[in-house]
From TrEMBL:
GO molecular-function terms, A-Z: oxidoreductase activity, acting on paired donors, with incorporation or reduction of molecular oxygen
Keywords tagged on the record: Oxidoreductase
The keyword NADP belongs to this UniProt entry's keyword annotation: no
Domain Luciferase-like: 36-347
UniProt xrefs under Pfam families: Bac_luciferase
InterPro entries to which the protein is assigned, alphabetical: F420-G6PD/mer (IPR050564), Luciferase-like_dom (IPR011251), Luciferase-like_sf (IPR036661)
Superkingdom of the source species: Bacteria
Glycosyltransferase is among the record's keywords: no
Name listed for the protein in its UniProt record: Photosystem I reaction center subunit VIII
Length: 381
């Protein structure tokens, strides 16, 4: 059995006392824990109602003035590349967006990072979400079709050997396009694709070096989707076992089950349930607060949800939904849960520490010690 590898995703909120303080602490901690990779998200803004960003709901408000002040990920990755000289961690984005980013620009950014890191860049990529596209005038009618064309465009540019590229596409036509950045020692960045539905799973099998879905599934769901990915890879003439089976998971931890259960009831953690599709709620005998057949994070527009409406939604979110979608508990319980994911095929965990979103700032910050215990423990699974 291949060894389990571990990555950590840092936050990109503008924070105090310096803009990248939270990210810097997360990066240094990851390096000290000798993780395999460090990741940053790609958002223009947050994915939960800004009306709840108040100290009575979230202790981190004292350190993070706004949940929508996101630092730009490729700039941050370039900054980290200048610091990432001793640890040798891979650097990745989890995940960038093919809706609001032209694929030629993404190809350039990822290739640049790969040169700066001497081949340690990972391009995590997916269709994106409505909240980062539609409010900014970007068409959101066919995100998966747009994604497929973006991936094909990136690969066409990378494989052009500096020759003029001409390619018909309904989204990204190339007319005598030039891409002359070189690969690092003959290798382009790995492409890890976030996918959940059948069409996206087929795209993972055809194009990806890594499979990187997020929450809103159970270990058995992951196993079924991984089988679909490997079948698609085999159909495309690729080695299905060459695709890295990864999983992005948020972690809620603490010194006791009681502390963790208290954190799970915090408004900013529980409102995360809006990011899950209605099918998850159905498993728990409930309906999605946003309506039947709501697809979750991909179609969520949270920024104009007022405080009282948000609190009403929270009351409709079963805590069992949040427990299912996170690794949660004291470290020993989290490691038992992670073992279930490992047994379902996961070989690379990307963890996000969401503990600072709970009501208590003290407990949120103190939980970093338990999170680090989990990171170290995962490497021994």
């Amino acid at each position: 059995m291949a060894r389990v590898r571990v990555g950590v995703q840092g936050p990109l909120f503008v924070s105090r006392p310096r803009a990248d303080a939270f990210n810097r602490v997360s990066y240094v901690s990851a390096a000290l824990n000798r993780v395999d990779s460090f990741w940053v998200p790609d958002h223009l803004n947050g994915v939960f109602p800004r009306s709840l960003w108040k100290q009575k709901y979230c202790g981190a408000v004292r350190l993070v003035p706004s949940p929508d002040a996101y630092l730009e990920p490729w700039t941050m990755l370039g900054h980290l590349a200048g610091r990432n000289r001793l640890g040798g961690m891979r650097l990745g984005v989890a995940v960038t967006d093919t809706g609001r980013r032209n694929p030629a620009v993404t190809a350039q950014a990822a290739a640049t990072l790969n040169l700066l890191t001497r081949g340690r860049a990972i391009l995590g990529i997916g269709p994106g979400e409505r909240e980062g596209n539609e409010p900014y005038g970007i068409d959101w009618s066919r995100p998966v079709a747009r994604f497929e064309e973006a991936i094909a465009t990136i690969k066409a540019l990378w494989n052009s050997n500096g020759e003029l590229v001409n390619r018909d596409s309904p989204y990204f036509p190339l007319r005598n396009a030039v891409f002359d950045l070189p690969p690092y020692q003959g290798n382009w960045p790995q492409i890890w694709i976030a996918g959940h539905k059948p069409r996206m799973l087929r795209a993972v099998g055809r194009y990806a070096d890594g499979f990187l879905p997020a929450y809103a599934q159970r270990p058995q769901d992951y196993a079924e989707r991984l089988d679909a990915v490997r079948s698609a890879a085999s159909d495309a003439g690729r080695d299905p076992m060459s695709i890295v089976p990864a999983m992005w998971l948020p972690v809620v931890t603490g010194k006791s089950r009681r502390d963790v259960d208290e954190a799970l009831e915090s408004e900013l953690i529980k409102i995360g349930g809006l990011n899950f599709p209605d099918e998850v709620f159905e498993r728990h005998g409930a309906k999605h607060p946003m309506g039947e057949r709501f697809s979750g994070v991909q179609d969520l527009l949270p920024h104009d949800i007022d405080e009282q409406t948000a609190l009403t939604y929270i009351r409709q979110i079963p805590t069992t939904v949040i427990r299912e979608a996170t690794l949660n508990g004291p470290p020993e319980e989290v490691l038992e849960q992670a073992a279930q994911w490992r047994d379902s095929g996961v070989r690379y965990f990307i963890l996000a520490n969401v503990n600072p979103l709970q009501r208590s700032l003290r407990k949120g910050l103190a939980s970093a010690r338990h999170f680090n215990t989990i990171v170290r423990g995962l490497k021994r699974l």
